[in-house]
UniProtKB/TrEMBL annotation:
Ranges of residues in domain HTH crp-type: 147-216
Residue ranges of the TM segments: none
Protein name (record): Crp/Fnr family transcriptional regulator
Keywords assigned: DNA-binding, Transcription, Transcription regulation
Ranges of residues in domain Cyclic nucleotide-binding: 13-133
Organism of this sequence: Geothrix edaphica
PROSITE patterns per the UniProt record, alphabetical: CNMP_BINDING_3, HTH_CRP_2
Length: 224
């Protein structure tokens, strides 16, 4: 199976594509390469399609135009962005920068919409995909509005821990600045929160490596 087809099938809502449809999309997808920190698109752009990460990652964020940044998500291999703008026709509501040396397949909008119309099973998976995005944003709003910065940092540690639940060590690829922007805080506030959680005996931090010392107490602290 061609690599481009495998890359497309890594996307949740395209995983069930019939082979001929997957090959059709792969044949028109364009591979784009970005050096670390390059702007992939800017908030308010009319994006040409869906970007699928096949190497590196993307930092997806919004800005208020005055220097304040809210990171919405860090996309990894197999993740995609731009699908909302493809189906509602509006300018994209976020910006994205490459995180490391990054490669993305760009799937053009019109052919993707046509395939969704022809394959109801893809449309159903797309609905599930959008529902998961809504849940993610609802959780983000709750975190930013109802929890203190130390509680948000505790939640961030727990989310990172979920990918390796049998290990007590969490190692971040992102900087403290990046992570602070994920939880709507300054880098200084993020650093103070790490020190507080350390003083409480919940973690041991030698950032970017953090050791969770008491998972149960950290979970209770994160809930407020």
């Amino acid at each position: 199976m061609p690599q481009a087809v495998l890359n497309l099938r890594r996307i949740e809502f395209l995983a069930g594509l019939p082979m001929n449809a997957a090959e059709e999309l792969a044949s028109i997808a364009e591979l784009r390469r970005f050096p670390d920190g390059a702007r992939v698109y800017t908030q308010g752009d009319q994006v040409p399609g869906v970007y699928v990460v096949v190497k590196g990652g993307l930092k997806v964020f919004r800005t208020d135009g005055r220097g304040r940044v809210q990171v919405l998500q860090f996309l990894k291999v197999g993740d995609c962005v731009g699908e909302v703008a493809v189906f509602d026709g509006a300018p994209i509501a976020s910006s994205a920068e490459s995180h490391g040396e990054t490669e993305c397949w760009l799937i053009p909008s019109a052919p993707l919409r046509q395939i969704v119309h022809r394959h109801p099973e893809v449309a159903e998976m797309l609905i599930h995909h959008f529902a998961a995005k809504v849940r993610h944003l609802v959780t983000l709003v709750e975190t930013l509005s109802l929890h203190s910065v130390p509680e948000r940092v505790a939640q961030l540690l727990l989310e990172a821990h979920e990918s390796h639940p049998m290990r007590s060590l969490v190692e971040f690829q992102e900087t403290q600045e990046d992570l602070a922007q994920c939880i709507g805080a300054s880098r200084e506030a993020f650093s103070r929160a790490l020190r507080l959680l350390t003083d409480l005996g919940l973690i041991q931090s030698t950032f970017p490596v953090v050791r969770i010392l008491d998972l149960g107490k950290l979970q209770r602290y994160a809930k407020g």
